[in-house]
Amino acid sequence: MKVQVTRNPSTHSGTPGWLRTEEEFTCNTLELPWKENKKGLSCIEAGTYFGKVEYHSKYGHDIIRLEDKNGRKGILFHNGTFAGDVEVDADHDSQPDYVSQVQGCIEVGDNFALMTRKDGKQQLGIVHSVATLTKLTAHLGPGRHEFLFQWAEGCAPQPPEVNYVPK
Known about the structure:
Blueprint: E1 2-7, E2 15-21, E3 26-31, E4 47-56, E5 61-66, E6 76-78, E7 106-109, E8 111-116, E9 122-127, H1 129-140, E10 145-151
Parallel strand pairs: 1-10, 6-7
Antiparallel strand pairs: 1-2, 2-3, 3-7, 4-5, 4-10, 5-6, 8-9
């Protein structure tokens, strides 16, 4: 089955988006912010990936595993709530201002909300993740599926500026 994941702009709270299958199943997605495809800190590169539904003992239910690609391994669609930028430390107190439950994977849910974390701070999160993942994996079923990751119009991150100094 073909699956399209469309991303909105990245923020320090993560990269919100939405997923749509060719058979009209839809849900929301939340990934890490774009950080040049850095392992453990960034969402994956846009492009086409292949994946399959499989049982994962850590989560105790089915997840979706994508192929290893572009230097990234172990990319999963799994349940979770937060996908924040764990490098951001606005107060310079050595603790990141955001939390994440992913290291490059994709969380699914049916909406976004400002949620209270265990430390009492609030952060954008994705809701009803386990139920949504259960519906998505049942909808996809067994076999190899094609996933197209893209940015919504005008939302693609801009390449870093290069300071060119002529000789």
